[in-house]
Amino acid sequence: DGLFIGDWDLLEDVIDDGEPDGEDPEPVQAAGAVEAFLDLVDNSDDPEAQAVKFAGKLSVKTGTGNDSLGILGVAVGLDASIHTGTGHGDVLGISNLSVGRDLKLTYGDLNAVQNVTVGGKTTVKSGTGDDRFAIDRVTLKGDAEIHLGPGKDELALGEGVVAEKNVKLRGGAGKDQLASAIDLDGADVSGF
């Protein structure tokens, strides 16, 4: 199953292949969905564009199975909670998201998060299995915690990650890997 929340025109601008005939590119295969999403969103003309606005809270929960969820160009006035279910093979892509208070992301197997601003606390929890997180161009104004579940998990933090308060990074049971382009001095890091 797949779900897209956001500005469809912005998404079309992002994925336009630029050919004079105006044809869209071939559909992205699931195996490369996170990398493709990051590549496509990198072409956005305005990384802070949020055309869809929710004054209150946003809560999204997918079921079990292989789900894909894309959030692009969304502003949330209060809290946002995104739960991609407990199945394996879930893909989550988030870009151009602004959250006024707290952001909670749970589960997911392939996760790409960029061009995000969170006004409150950020909590990320992965489930069982081999999960991958790529996070870049993110401003976290409150405390931030990332907890990786059992499995061989990977966490990549790009140089555009700015954390203004306390950061806690926890690897889970299994051989987890952390790649960071930012200095993690002062962060509470264990399990990698």
Structure description:
This protein is mainly beta. Helices cover 9% and strands 43% of the residues. It is built from 2 helices and 16 strands. Strands 1, 2, 4, 6, 8, 10, 12, 13 and 15 form a 9-stranded parallel β-sheet that branches. The radius of gyration is 16 Å and the shape is globular. The termini are far apart. The model is unreliable at 14-34 (pLDDT under 50).
List keywords for this structure.
mainly beta, 9-stranded parallel sheet, 7-stranded parallel sheet, 16 strands
Number of E-type strands: 16
Distance between the termini: 33 Å
- What structural class do helix, strand and pairing data support? mainly beta
Q: How would you spell out the order of helices and strands?
A: EHHEEEEEEEEEEEEEEE
Q: Which shape, going by the Cα principal axes? A: globular
Mean of the pLDDT scores? Answer: 80
User: How much of the residues is beta strand, in percent?
Assistant: 35-45%
- Uncertain runs: 14-34
Sheet of most strands? 9 strands, parallel
Number of helices: 2
- Helix content range of the residues, please? under 10%
